[in-house]
Amino acid sequence: MNYQRSSNLKKLKVFIAIIAFLAIFNVSKPTNVQAASSDYIPTIYLHGHGAGARSTDDMINFAQTHFHATRALLVVVDRQGVPHFFGTMDKSTYRPIVQVVFKDNMNTNFNVTSGWLHEIMTQLKQNYGVTKFNAVAHSMGNMTLLYYMLNYGKDKNLPQLNKQVDIAGHYDGIAGIKDKPNSNWFMKSGRPAYITYDYQHALKLRKNYPYKQVKILNFYGNLSNGTNTDGRVSTVSARSIKYILRGRYKSYRQVKITGYMGEHSMLHENPKVDRIMGDFLWNK
Question: Can you tell me where the transmembrane regions are (predicted)?
């Protein structure tokens, strides 16, 4: 009898302990979800020309390790422009990351690629409840993002851009194609002396960019070898986004990376870039 009573007492204590644990969990869980919901601003990563997931993997891995971001969704846009979503994301996802991959990764019609991004953003709003987003773009991904904002920036039914990170953007030409090293410069107005068709087109649509809404961080490289380029993009071209969006952005900061680590492709493999970018996205 004493043994049975002791056994029952132990079971009762275990039961009470479980109930107490569940009560504490249920009380604290909404607080955690609420805290996570305040960080439910997905960050979209866009790769450059001829690239894919690997070109943004290191940046995402750094964000996971050092800023506790969550790799939530992979969106693969097929050659017909149809996005396919993989992974899970909801308002409890802490600092969610959405990695975008274009199968047609050499398409330079930015009205087309921005249309693909528009479809992604539409589905993020409809299926994942996204109302705000951040964006990180490298190389040609910057042109997709810029054209998206110029073509659709006034649509308040879409998720609204919060913070924008530009890395090695070729807004006013690519070295050796529509630009040559040391052949362009900024005039007193801040406008490049020579502008490409794409740049001129962007200037015409600049007022579609949301007014005083977006904070911009712009990284550009200089190999310090006399060319004033990152090997692909001149410093003038990479910095020329400031003139396009003058008076429109909420804040603008540019960061120069010099030497080997300032090379075009090394900019998305650079821990210094990753650290500054993470602080900008999540600590400010």
Answer: none
Q: What contacts 127, CB < 8 A, 6 or more positions away?
A: 85
Sole residue written with tokens 């492709």: 265
Question: How many folded domains does the chain comprise?
Answer: 2
Claim to verify: residue 9 and residue 49 sit in the same structural domain: no
Over the Cα atoms of the chain, what is R_g?
23
pLDDT of residue 4: 52
The CA distance from 248 to 207, in Å, is 7
- The predicted pLDDT at position 34 comes to 39
Residue 39 has a pLDDT of 72
What CATH number corresponds to the domain at position 69? Answer: 3.40.50.1820
The confidence score (pLDDT) of residue 178 equals 64
Residue 82 has pLDDT above 60, yes or no: yes
By residue range, what is the domain housing residue 24?
1-38
Q: How far apart are CA 12 and CA 86, in angstroms?
A: 45
Rounded Cα gap, residues 142 and 154, in angstroms: 19
